[in-house]
């Protein structure tokens, strides 16, 4: 198993788990070379780092496909979402690349990610997390406490189910739900998503998280793709998946 039983229980309780060395560090290095080239900046010349954040689109070249599809990751997906209850990724994206330069990034507010598009194209989330099994954070550079690590409200995924329980399959619009979820999770402790190239954070789709400014010296490269699900969460299963268990725990808290 990629995750120990204790790590699975940590995921249910805290809303996330870090899978160390989820993909090889040499693959991370190959990806990093492509990412640097796409930024238009010189990795050896800080004078070319002129913006706090540059957002890069999806990447599906061979190194990124390898990073996204290791046996360790696929096994962990089975453990958390259910065997083959998820859609394999063919690549990764988007990449918010954060640089240690003055200025506000403008995208560092607390939130949870949207799940599916409503009838008017609006972003929505429902109790059974339609179309989204996980939020994932793929680390392609070393991320220390000062290197703009993603902030995570530990256990905040448990505060979201009560906000969705009466809204059926159509769920709620993303922004109003975010506002309520941020307020409901203010009491939660914060942990930083630090680690080494090749580490991946597997996060519950309801986890409240946020970016932050870069206070270190070395630009930070991560991907934050979703893991899509093949079907909505089965909250009535005899043995619900860990993702579904967390939703039920939030409803019963």
Task: Give a description of the structure.
The chain has 253 residues and is an alpha+beta fold. It has one domain (5-252): Jelly Rolls, CATH 2.60.120.620. It is 27% helix and 17% strand. Strands 1, 6, 10, 12 and 13 form a 5-stranded antiparallel beta sheet that branches. Strands 4-5-8 form a 3-stranded antiparallel beta sheet. A 3-stranded antiparallel beta sheet has the order 9-7-11, with no helix packed on it. The longest helix is centred in the first third of the chain and has 15 residues, at 25-39. It is globular and about 55 Å long. It starts with a helix and ends with a helix. The mean pLDDT is 97. InterPro entries: Phytyl_CoA_dOase-like (IPR008775). GO terms for molecular function: 2-oxoglutarate-dependent dioxygenase activity. Keywords: Dioxygenase, Oxidoreductase.
Report the β-strand fraction as a percent range. Answer: 15-25%
Fourth CATH level, the homologous superfamily:
q2cbj1_9rhob like domain
- Inertia-based shape: globular
Kindly name the structural category.
alpha+beta
Helix fraction, binned, reads: 25-40%
Helical stretch tally:
7
GO molecular function: 2-oxoglutarate-dependent dioxygenase activity
Keywords: Dioxygenase, Oxidoreductase
Protein name: Phytanoyl-CoA dioxygenase family protein
Pfam families: PhyH
